[in-house]
């Protein structure tokens, strides 16, 4: 009960804060400036017997040797328990240039027990268009640990079949971006809101001049920009650091039914409603009694079952909400009743069905 009260006390302190000014770059991104996903298939070698021996691993191993001019008998099955087939993926940042390095993640796709101590050999990383944008290679850093004994017992710490290589890939190709094209740049808000889009445009117009920025919808704001790339960089640097006050989000109550987490927005209001909260606990227990026969009666010992049913009803309390009750009043009333998170979910759902909540009830 104390934990529930503390949780909601902290919640009130967080959501009751007034919206503060924030920088444009903290709540939006420039259209066309984005990272790109890369993926590749490769082999990790040098494993201490924790690799795998599958058909596609053998095929990949033979293909690798073939690239070095070594031809194996097609019927030969090499023992390659120190080799594992892996998928390699990375994010290629916007404006990444050839010669720069990016981090990569390596994941086993077969039955390898661990990638610890392994080395990724040269792997091509491709984009969605099928072109090669980076080449990866290097020694893996694996945070997990897996140990297995001969009797089948094992101990696993974290995930030993996934590793990372910091700066493990070298960029080979630049992804074209539309940043230097046209007469405009467009800011896309992370959270769609018409009021926020208008305020962002007004902030830019107040600095640069009228009609410089124009909101296109609840997400996008188009801004006139110089064509010279150097001037455009300096111009964007100025705009993205401007501060404005985004609009408050719509009133919502978020309920996570799996974890019991409940978050109530500060703008949630309640209409007149009366709530009764109570709980009924039924306990059923089965006990066995042993009945002994009378002395010299030649009887047999009997075991009988005894069922005990106990019904306990907690105090049932009711509370009434007046029009326009805010979050503070709601939390205080619920704490007085002593509702657990599960009971609170049921109360909120009942209030929504009764039409007594001004806001959205979102169950995830």
Descriptive key words:
364 residues, Gyrase A, domain 2, six-stranded antiparallel β-barrel, alpha+beta, disordered N terminus
Structure notes:
- There is one protein chain.
- By secondary structure, the protein is α+β, with helices and mostly antiparallel strands.
- The protein folds into three domains: 36-171, no CATH class; 178-244, 2-Layer Sandwich (Gyrase A, domain 2); 252-363, no CATH class.
- The chain contains seven helices and 23 strands.
- The protein has a six-stranded antiparallel barrel with strand order 3-4-5-10-7-6.
- A hairpin with a 5-residue loop joins β6 and β7.
List the helices and strands and how they pair.
Elements: H1 2-15, E1 22-23, H2 24-27, E2 28-30, E3 36-45, H3 55-67, E4 84-92, E5 101-108, E6 119-126, E7 132-139, E8 145-148, E9 154-157, E10 162-171, E11 184-189, H4 194-208, E12 213-215, E13 220-224, H5 229-240, E14 243-244, E15 252-256, E16 261-264, E17 269-270, E18 273-277, E19 280-291, E20 302-313, E21 317-321, H6 327-337, H7 341-353, E22 357-358, E23 360-363
Parallel strand pairs: 15-23
Antiparallel strand pairs: 1-14, 2-11, 3-4, 3-6, 4-5, 5-10, 6-7, 7-10, 8-9, 11-13, 12-13, 15-16, 17-22, 18-21, 19-20
């Amino acid at each position: 009960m104390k934990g529930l009260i503390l949780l909601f006390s902290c919640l009130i302190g967080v959501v009751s804060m007034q919206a503060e000014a924030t920088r444009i770059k903290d709540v939006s991104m420039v259209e066309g400036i984005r990272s790109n996903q890369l993926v590749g298939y490769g082999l990790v070698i040098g494993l201490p017997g924790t690799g795998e021996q599958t058909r596609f691993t053998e095929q990949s191993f033979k293909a690798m040797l073939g690239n070095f001019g070594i031809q194996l008998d097609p019927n030969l099955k090499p023992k390659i328990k120190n080799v594992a087939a892996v998928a390699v993926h990375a994010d290629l940042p916007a404006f990444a240039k050839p010669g720069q390095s990016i981090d990569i993640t390596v994941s086993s796709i077969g039955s390898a027990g661990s990638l610890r101590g392994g080395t990724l050999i040269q792997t091509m990383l491709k984009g969605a268009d099928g072109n090669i944008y980076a080449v990866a290679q290097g020694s893996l850093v694996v945070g997990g640990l897996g140990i297995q004994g001969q009797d089948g017992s094992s101990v696993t710490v974290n995930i030993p079949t996934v590793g990372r290589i910091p700066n493990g890939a070298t960029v080979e190709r630049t992804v074209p971006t539309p940043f230097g094209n046209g007469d405009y740049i467009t800011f896309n808000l992370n959270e769609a809101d018409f009021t926020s889009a208008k305020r962002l445009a007004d902030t830019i117009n107040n600095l640069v001049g009228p009609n410089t920025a124009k909101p296109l919808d609840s997400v996008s704001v188009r801004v006139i920009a110089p064509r010279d790339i150097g001037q455009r960089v300096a111009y964007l640097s100025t705009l993205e650091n401007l501060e404005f006050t985004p609009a408050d989000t719509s009133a919502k109550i978020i309920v996570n039914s799996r974890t019991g987490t409940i978050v109530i927005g500060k703008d949630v209001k309640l209409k007149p409603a009366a709530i009764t909260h109570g709980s009924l606990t039924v306990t059923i227990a089965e006990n066995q009694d042993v009945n002994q026969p009378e002395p010299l009666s030649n009887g047999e010992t009997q075991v009988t079952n005894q069922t005990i049913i106990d019904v306990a009803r907690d105090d049932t309390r009711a509370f009434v909400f007046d029009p326009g009750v805010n979050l503070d009043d709601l939390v205080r009333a619920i704490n007085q009743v002593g509702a657990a998170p599960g009971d609170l979910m049921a109360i909120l759902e009942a209030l929504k069905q009764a039409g007594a909540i001004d806001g959205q009830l979102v169950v995830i």
